[in-house]
Amino acid sequence: MIFGFLLILTPIFAAAQSTRINENNLTAWGTINADWNLNEKLGIHLDINQRRVNITEDIFQHLYRIGMNYKPNKNIYLRAGYVLSRTSPFGDIQEAVSHQTSTEHRTYESISFSSKAGRLETSHRIIMEQRWNGKFSSPDLNKQDSWSYANRARYRIRFDYSFQKHTNQQSYPYIAAYDELMIHFGKQVKENVFDQNRIGCLTGYAISPVTRLEFGFMYQVLQLSKKYFDKNVFQNNSNLMVNLLLNLPGHAATK
Description:
Elements: H1 2-18, E1 20-37, E2 42-53, E3 59-73, E4 76-87, H2 92-95, E5 102-117, E6 120-135, E7 146-162, E8 172-185, E9 194-206, E10 211-223, E11 232-248
Parallel strand pairs: 1-11
Antiparallel strand pairs: 1-2, 2-3, 3-4, 4-5, 5-6, 6-7, 7-8, 8-9, 9-10, 10-11
Organism: Flavihumibacter stibioxidans
InterPro entries: DUF2490 (IPR019619)
Protein name: DUF2490 domain-containing protein
């Protein structure tokens, strides 16, 4: 029975592999994440991201995010804002076709909620994004001549474990693990509903109530938004992570 089931699945897997291309890349992501708490409930968010190919080589993405925070209570965090990114093609498949750098404008809304059990904190984050991506009608163009619109939904679950009991005034080490799934939706999406999945683990140190530093690894499976050579392309990216988290006067920075 099991053998028969495998015989049925074999042509399905073979067909899926024949319509897709997989490639592996090594990248490095650096982030500065800052929250400025205006009062107990309101705050301003800013983060700056720089992402490089092969750790030290060319930058393939600059991303800037701003937002307004609202915290109705200690376990719930709301945010809305704007993102600007500039992304260059990387990887063997994209680079063989184009070297054009595209711009994306994005608005977003998010909600985060968390709970604690001893030294373990579990947090959930849901983000809705409205994305305007620059497009090129020809590989010979230097400027984008059109825009495409898409909605994206993101869900992340994260676990943080502190190695020691602490108060907000103490420095302490911790570890974290997370998984985040992103999908496209809406009438504009004809195919490629899956966008990407990120799974990571981090080692962190709370230097002070204002500053935390994290190092770690994140594995990303990313489906490119368009087909190359009439096939879907999946990038399997191994990313080294460095995060600096700043929390200007007020409560502890969100994770």
